[in-house]
Amino acid sequence: MNKVSNRFYHIDLLEVIVMLFVIIYHSMMYPSDFINDKTEISYLGYYVSAILSTCVPLFFFANGYLLLNKSFDLRKHVFKIVRFIVIAVVWGMIDLSMILYITNETLSVSEFIKAVWKWDIHYGINVFWYLGALVCIYLLFPLIKIAYDNNKQIFMFFLGICAILTFGNTLLNHLVSCGLYLVGYSSKVYNANFFNMFNVFKGIYGYAFVYFCIGGVIKYKENYIKEWISKKKNIFIVSIVIVIVISSGILSITGILLSNIADKRWDLVWNGYSTIPTLINVICIYMLCLVYKARNERLRTIIKIISTSTLGIYVIHMIFIKVTYNSIVEIIIACSFIEKVIINVFYAICILMICTIITQIMKKIPLLKKIV
């Protein structure tokens, strides 16, 4: 097999999209807070943000796609778990130190340790929750892998139960919250655990397991999907885009209702991870990436380099956003909504490329290459 056929270039493209979405979300420059802004355009901004809820779920999806369909080495796997824990702690400390320096703030030693351990959202280091969720998946991965390789029925049972206890629980909360609000009975956003002590996934990012496992299942069935796409490619692309538009609309409407109930903006991205519309959009984006043929060698190389740098980009991008964000926002304050969206995307691309270059440089340094 040649080098092109050995690499999943559509997954490379998917990971580039993921990282771009993450940076856009963390640097949002267009209006989307319709509760405080009280403008019609902010509703549009809110809707535009819906697609960004796929950012981190696509990471989990790609991990499952790659790991569940390759050979497993327990010793290497244990080292990988330890590495991710070290990366999370080390970069949490580095990022917090840099942000404190940029903002000219000080913390005592105990406050510093507490901020790192709890991934304090105030300092923007809460982005490392992703590595914590990934470690949780990796701790159970040996058992998941055994089921995937040897008994698909047990694997699908695990996936089904996980989906019910996570996405199902979120759906019930949204139905109860919105339903009672619409009939005028209650004005409360419910966040109940409907499965009580029987919900083994409550308290962790359980939905991450669903995305991870679905990634593996789709890779297993990928040839059938490709065959289906090849028959009616144009109709397929249009259909997928329509599904994304509708799914994002459903998520936005849910968010608008929940925002009105709580009288504050319901974060479509963070709160959308465990919703069915986001799950649908994740699968749709993967299918759109599957159409990518990787024929342009230069573009393919750029996408590959970014894809292999995603961990480094993820752990350092917040530093650059903290340094540059306020200056950019002040410059574009008078711009139109469309202009702000375009500038936000261009800004995210710039941050993406800068972080990619820095990550590639760090990979040349013996000690640093272990943590990027």
Q: Any descriptors?
A:
disordered N terminus; 72% helix; mainly alpha; 372 residues
What does this structure look like?
There is one protein chain. The chain is mainly alpha-helical. The protein has one domain. It has helices spanning 3-6, 9-26, 34-37, 40-49, 55-67, 74-103, 109-117, 129-150, 152-182, 207-220, 222-231, 233-262, 276-290, 297-307, 310-331, 337-362. Helix 9 (152-182) packs across helix 10 and helix 9 (152-182) packs across helix 12 (233-262). The longest helix has 31 residues, at 152-182. Residues 1-5 have low confidence and may be disordered.
Unreliable runs: 1-5
Largest sheet: none
Overall number of strands: 0
Question: What oligomeric state do the depicted chains represent?
Answer: single chain
Order of helices and strands: HHHHHHHHHHHHHHHH
Using the alpha-carbon principal axes, give the shape. globular
Mean pLDDT: 92
Summing up helix and strand content along with how strands pair, one would put the structural category as mainly alpha
**DSSP strand content:** under 5%
